[in-house]
Design goal:
Elements: H1 2-23, H2 30-39, H3 42-54, H4 71-95, H5 103-106, H6 112-153, H7 155-169, H8 171-175, H9 189-213, H10 217-229, H11 252-272
Length: about 270
């Protein structure tokens, strides 16, 4: 009952708002982006409502950062998305060389090295700002839903189910072209599936961070960093190229890299710190 009530609230309200905004042609507007940022707090609101109605814990982790005991894990959470963004670019453009373009950078009259330095310098603090919005999702998905599911099916299955649910939650905006655009094979089903894959992989790492640090802030920082650096690779895409496979972090190739390399390596690093 706790999970069902949480899912009804966390899905119905944002989906209804997104669908209405899509119907009125607001997708991509400043209003749309501002409202979507606010809707990132709906999972937290849903967890709070379930907490009040059902008298269950809103989150199972500490509201404190516990950063002194887990400094290394926080640094990994902060910077690993940037490395994933670069790895995704390298692998993707090594395979799809014809998709590479410097047109966007040339329009700024900067060299590639200048552009990259400025971009990285902007992304690092942007992760902290984005964390404030990502925290709303993490309170809901990792703080409430993941522990509730873990009690019933174990942590491994809980990561899988939470990732799928989290991916499906993005469906209304993905259908409108957010994350993957519109002109990709299998639209929109393949895009929805790709988002679920990304959320399973990244959500598993976020669940580990929550368990490892006993704090909701570590996964929130990682999530904020993902949102800050996720579209870095798209700057190098030719305008008409589809980006279901990559190089954005939610693309299929970066998701595979994260699942096979980033998450295992980061987990081992955290355990040694």
């Amino acid at each position: 009952m706790n999970i069902l009530l949480y899912l009804i609230i966390s899905f119905v309200i944002p989906w209804a708002i997104w669908i209405v905004m899509n119907a009125y042609g607001l997708f991509g507007s400043s209003v749309y982006m501002a409202v979507s940022a606010i809707l990132m707090w709906l999972p937290a609101v849903s967890a709070a409502i379930v907490h009040l109605v059902r008298k269950t814990p809103m989150i199972r982790y500490s509201w404190r950062s516990e950063i002194r005991k887990n400094t290394g894990c926080y640094l990994i959470a902060w910077f690993s998305p940037l490395f994933l963004a670069f790895a995704g670019c390298i692998v993707y453009f090594s395979i799809f060389r014809n998709d590479f373009s410097l047109a966007s950078i040339e329009m700024t009259a900067m060299t590639v090295s200048q552009f990259m330095l400025i971009t990285v310098a902007a992304i690092i603090p942007a992760a902290l700002f984005n964390m404030l919005f990502a925290l709303g999702e993490e309170i809901g998905w990792r703080g409430f839903l993941y522990p509730e599911l873990s009690d019933r099916v174990g942590k491994a299955k809980a990561c899988l189910i939470t990732g799928i649910i989290w991916g499906l939650w993005h469906t209304p905006i993905n259908i409108m072209g957010y994350n993957y655009g519109l002109g990709y094979p299998g639209y929109p089903v393949s895009g929805i599936a790709a988002m679920c894959l990304s959320c399973i992989v990244l959500g598993t790492w976020e669940s580990y961070l929550a368990d490892r640090t006993d704090s909701i802030w570590a996964p929130a920082l990682f999530h904020g960093s993902i949102n800050a650096s996720g579209a870095l690779g798209l700057v190098f895409m030719r305008p008409d190229a589809p980006y279901l496979l990559g190089p954005g972090i939610t693309g299929i190739i970066p998701s595979i890299i994260a699942g096979l390399v980033l998450v295992p390596v980061c987990q081992k690093a955290c355990e040694k710190l």
